[in-house]
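Exam revision sheet. Question 4 asks you to relate a sequence to its structure. Input first:
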Amino acid sequence: MKMRMLSATLLVAGFFTVNAQNGTSKHREVVANGGFIQTPISNVAYTPTRGVSGLPDFTVAAENSVNAVVHVKVETKQRMINGGDMDNDPFFNFFFGPNGSGSQRQLEPQKASGSGVIISTDGYIVTNNHVVSEADNIQVVLNDKRTFTATVIGTDPNTDIALLKIEAKDLPTLVFGNSDDLKLGEWVLAIGNPFNLTSTVTAGIVSAKARNINIISSKTPIESFIQTDAAINPGNSGGALVNTRGELIGINTAIASQTGSYSGYGFAVPVSIVSKVVADIKQYGAVQRALMGVQIRDIDDDFAKEKKIKVLDGVYVAEVNDLSAAKEAGIKEGDIITKINGVTVKSSAELQEQVGRHRPGDKVEVTFIREGKDKTVSVTLKNQQGDTKVVKNKGIEALGASLEEVNDDLKQKLRISGGVQIVGLQRNSLLAAAGLQKGFVILKINNKNIRKVGDIESVINANNSADEQDKALFITGIYPNGKVAYYAIDPSSK
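Answer key, structure tokens:
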């Protein structure tokens, strides 16, 4: 599997993949923090002790952290379709599933490895979504060499976070730090398994905060990375970024490189984002994404001159969506948002990070500039369905898939007006067991058109009603190559 190139110099980093057939490699990564347990040891600035050489001594922080960082090994079965005429027969596929004639040939499995962080003594582990999204088998190797099979509890493509669970007790964990308190120039350690070199520790400083590097390809990504010069390489995905007190403050994510290996800059998702994501997955089964409902952009000198804006700090409101939380609060196009709950936001990344900490129904104080004057309004955040409900997506969770609305390019390519695409699929899930594969676009369920994720939720909720409980779900859809397929799912089998 080839390494994904984001630009001339920017790569996803830390996910080390070995293809059994061609030996090529890939890497990538993001961050993680448990969110639902522990608190920082202290918010007081700390200077590491000095060794005999006069340089900082990181031994205590490293020793307190390394046992809570695990090696995540995944195996993905690859399949090649050698289809015949039956592959294009929708009636045959309806009864037997795609390639039910047995014309499927198994290829050698693809093996990959990354890292993870233990966040609870009973076996919850945070890693990256991209590490496990296509895995058929996940093995977690602890620092004491014990190996466990892991289960995916939930994933969030928007932050590239996944929550795993192993059956174990009395495990070592990392204490959560406060990524908001990080200062530029502060020492940090990166801990992971680069190139399958287990329990590797590197040191560096915080080079920048709130970096948006356009690495996450989902429809509504949240990026506000910590930038560090601690060495991060393939295999570091999901590993820990800790401060000198040994507190978890991020999970290593990406590197800027022209070679595919570390060359000076690494990125990690801050704990402030991950803790909320993981808590949502554990509590609700799905991430509760809160939205203001505005289209925003950063302000640079040229844009400021074009719009005759006198300030460069803040986030420009380019558009306010109808029926959105922002519109109901009175925010208008042309406003410049400068603070969320009193916290200064100088960029889109900082604004998204602050809003991303909340759930639908939460109220936030938004300060903005309009016609040269500061104004503050209370905004009640909404979800993607346009209301304030915190949705327990147990029905959708049971499907075992990460779902997104189809993007415009794929709509045009397939000549469809809408649909929901499977962007991640858990092993042994309802959809996987029925034969659905990643990339499949769901167009109808039980003959009802599917245009957004909420439509699937509605169908499942209706199916769970007293008189319709456990009724089969009949799914119609299309693959990106244009192949139409039909599936039947029995909810009672799960």
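Marking note for examiners. The radius of gyration is 23 Å.
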